[in-house]
Write a structure and sequence with these properties.
The chain is built from ten helices and eleven strands. Helix 6 runs parallel beside helix 10. Strands 8-7-6-10-9-11 form a six-stranded parallel sheet. A five-stranded mixed sheet has the order 1-4-3-5-2, sandwiched between helices. With about 260 residues, the chain is an alpha/beta fold.
Length: about 260
């Protein structure tokens, strides 16, 4: 049974629809929308707080019925046309309204992977790149994804979708600048390693211990504040005509090398 049924656009529906495009409302309400089977499943399995499940009226599957009957939070039936406006390209039967966690750096110590790399994405402009890097961070054993500076939103639907649910396996933080993360890292014996085309060859830098991997903005690289904080800066060897790598791809390569060295 649903707790609520909405068949016409009302204030509640408009509030949820705004979460798709309005960053300020997402962060003011501390909630965001999650679309798709795998992202919703990962959010639930990793213990993120689901404030509401939204279902198309009459829709049913083994997956959606199981979540509907076992997940805490409000359950809302929407008319199919309203649900379609929230469900994204895949049109999944459920959309989840998920609570946004706090941004305190103290959460870095609470990760379920306490010795995995901390990944910093400095001033990214593309939410898709944030999601892609989150996916790699999860795959290669990172503990956290920290987005610093004036940046795209890790809770943008494009970021959540691009992560294919991996965002929920990480401790995710947004931090204005390097200071709090640098203090946390230095107090706990982490080395801070940045990425830049002028850095040392990647394979020659020790990534086997506690490490913070800093990936820079897609156009301008890492900021001067992060560069100053770095113990090492690494470069990735390239051939061919490409002048640079996509930022999320570069970060993924460094994380893979860190996993290789740890293994």
């Amino acid at each position: 049974m649903s707790d609520l049924r909405i068949t016409r656009e009302n204030a509640r529906f408009q509030q949820w629809e705004a979460l798709l495009t309005n960053r300020s409302k997402r962060h003011r309400n501390r909630e965001f929308l999650v679309q798709g089977v795998r992202p919703i499943t990962r959010a639930v399995d990793e213990g993120w707080t689901v404030r509401a499940l939204l279902r198309a009226d009459g829709a049913s599957s083994a997956w959606s019925d199981a979540l509907w009957s076992t997940t805490d939070g409000e359950r809302v039936d929407l008319s199919p046309d309203l649900h379609a406006r929230l469900s994204g390209k895949d049109g999944s039967e459920l959309v989840a309204v998920v609570e946004m966690p706090d941004d305190g750096v103290a959460r870095l110590a609470d990760s379920s992977r306490p010795h995995g790399p901390i990944v910093v994405f400095d001033r990214p402009t593309s939410p898709g790149n944030i999601g892609t890097l989150a996916r790699s961070a999860d795959a290669f054993g990172a503990s956290a994804l920290v987005v610093t500076g004036h940046a795209a939103d890790p809770y943008d639907p494009q970021s959540v979708r691009a992560s294919t649910g991996s965002l929920f396996a990480l401790t995710v933080l947004r931090v204005p600048g390097p200071g709090p993360v640098v203090e946390h890292a230095q107090a706990r014996g982490y080395r801070i390693v940045g990425t830049d085309e002028e850095g040392s060859p990647l394979a020659e830098v020790d990534l086997s211990g506690r490490v913070v991997v800093v990936v820079g903005n897609e156009t301008h690289g890492i900021s001067s504040g992060w560069r100053t904080a770095c113990d090492d800066v690494v470069s990735i060897a390239m051939t061919g005509t490409a002048s640079s790598l996509n930022a999320a791809v570069a970060g993924s390569i460094v994380l893979h090398e860190a996993l290789r060295q740890r293994g």
